[in-house]
Write a structure and sequence with these properties.
With 141 residues, the chain is α/β, with parallel strands linked by helices. It has one domain (36-134): Rossmann fold, CATH 3.40.50. Helices cover 35% and strands 24% of the residues. The chain is built from 4 helices and 5 strands; from the N terminus they run E-E-H-E-H-E-H-E-H. The protein has a 5-stranded mixed beta sheet with strand order 1-2-3-4-5, with helices on both faces. Strand 1 (15-21) and strand 2 form a beta hairpin. The longest helix has 17 residues, at 36-52. The N and C termini lie far apart (58 Å).
Amino acid sequence: MAARKDARTVNFFRIRTALSVHPDYLELACSGVYSRPESIRVGEVAYREAARANRTAVLVDVRDVKGRVPGIFERFEFGVRIAEQYRESEPRIRLALLGHEPMIHPDRFGELVARNRGADARVFTDEAIARDWVQGRAREP
């Protein structure tokens, strides 16, 4: 069967992820256009792949995610979901989210929600501090 002239590539995921396994943690580098469902998927992938790689920490880098900034309700929902995924992970997997404001809330609202529900999760805008934290070398932002 001959190829159709109007054939095109369809990208089903608006946020692409690239995985890197480091000695102490897993890293997900994300790029693309923000969407709520895709952000939820990335959180699930982060915990699943960290467990699969036998890592107890994951760094999710969203600095290359563009588009609409999440609203306060979405940030609340992400915090709740991260806390649920943290509690369900065995062993517990700590999560660092690295990004730029305004994609990262200036008051770290999602982090506050997740931590208030028991998650070992932090949000960063400084890469060196995020990498230190995810490797257990805590530095405050």
